[in-house]
Amino acid sequence: MGAIAAAAGSAVGLGNIWRFPYIVGEDGGAAFLLLYVFFTIVISIPVLMTEFSLGRMTGQPVTSAFKTLCPGGKWQAIGILGVLTAFLIMSYYNIVSGWTLYYSVASVGGWLEGLSEDQIRQFFINISTDSVSCVVWLILILAATAFIVAKGVSGGIERYSKILMPLLFLLIIVMLVRSVTLSGAAEGLTFYLKPDFSKITPKTVFDALGQSFFSLSIGMGTMTTYGAYIQRTQSLSGLAMRVAAVDFLVAFLAGAVIFPCVFAFGINPGQGQGLVFVTLPNIFNMMPLGRLFSVAFFSLLVVAALTSSISLLEVVVAYIKTSFNMGRRKATVIASALTLLFGVACAFSPTFFYIVDNATANIMMPLGAFFIVIFAGWILPTQKIFDELSIHGTRFKLFRAFCFILRYVVPIVILIIFANGLYCWLA
Ligand code: PHE
């Protein structure tokens, strides 16, 4: 149960509720959603299964896992790429967590209550462009994350999150009821659910793959690290599918809450990273007990973000600990201080923030996944993965299809998407 909660805790976070809707909005709605589902089923679930297998096979976090499987080889570089990716994601992810924390405090104070759509937008602009206060909130979030990781008590927060995350889910359902009954909601649902295939561009395809990787925390070693804690009796394919299903459901419902409201209030769906923060307060303002719901929602979102950022920091800390032979506490302090440095850069430069957000999800994670599947599909003896995916002597029936996907489909799709992106970028 622990490993499932941890993996789901890592997957479900700001990626589902903040990033997913803003990318869907930028990329034109339903057609993107279909691509996202397609990539999740065909590419991401097999990659997730592979990462779990590598972790459980070795019982090691990501960098050591590759060292154990291929001593002296160059494959450890995959682990290092993962550590770098985790580190870069942390620098902007925690800023968004900081905004979320600020919104929960603002909800307690009732500062968003009764504001018009314009005033809510201004409220977000004020907080997101006030770099100094972004850094202050970032420090608070980083301190909380570092405290949990340094003490090695992530298990504690995962225990709470087993109760708190279903609560967040229930809240989203309540918000959904309010959102889809707003006048003008239908237009939003059409945007979200009725595909217009002319909206598919190389950027949409790039974004869909990146978002799918980002949301499932794959292509950088988090799930390899967590794989080490999964019991031998657990089916890895079942686990991967369950994690992906929960993760998708939360993202899908978040979108279903946001877009009806976006259209009902005449908000621009393609405005980018502030979308959720300028949309949701409007829903709370139209709900009975809205202030209470707003406090609960943003606080629970902070918890969801924490269980994800813990999993990011853990990757970096495990690396520093083993490579430099350092204690957990010291490694955590160093990793957090470095994160703060890059975080400050993100807080002061929106361009840097945007580039790091896009480059990590769209380039670094697919690149990591590419090397992981090449390693697992072509370098590692097939039998090893097969043994890991079969439990209690029951053969994993879809293994041949799985191997085909691992060896050919995933690497080729990633290469095509990269080549296409590069071509468009150069053209
Ligand atoms: N999947 C997390 C989310 O959706 C983000 C994350 C990415 C966490 C990579 C760990 C590793 O919020």
Kindly summarize this structure in a few lines:
By secondary structure, the protein is an all-alpha fold. The protein is 81% helix and 0% strand.
Model description:
81% of the residues lie in helices and 0% in strands. It is globular, with a radius of gyration of 21 Å. By secondary structure, the protein is mainly alpha-helical. It has a single domain, classed as Orthogonal Bundle (Hydantoin permease), CATH 1.10.4160. The structure holds phenylalanine. The site of phenylalanine (PHE) has 15 residues, from helix 1, helix 2, helix 10 and helix 14.
Q: What portion of the residues fall into strands of 2 or more residues? A: under 5%
Heterogens: phenylalanine
Element pattern in H and E: HHHHHHHHHHHHHHHHHH
Total separate domains:
1
Gap between N and C termini: 50 Å
Number of strands: 0
Largest beta-sheet characterization: none
**Class, according to the CATH hierarchy?**
Mainly Alpha
CATH architecture heading: Orthogonal Bundle
Are there runs of 5+ residues with pLDDT below 50, and where?
Answer: none
Helix content: over 70%
Number of helices: 18
CATH topology category name: Hydantoin permease
User: Which structural class matches the secondary elements?
Assistant: mainly alpha
What would you report as the Rg, rounded to the nearest angstrom?
21 Å
Overall, the morphology is: globular
Provide the CATH superfamily. Hydantoin permease
Q: How confident is the prediction overall: mean pLDDT?
A: 93
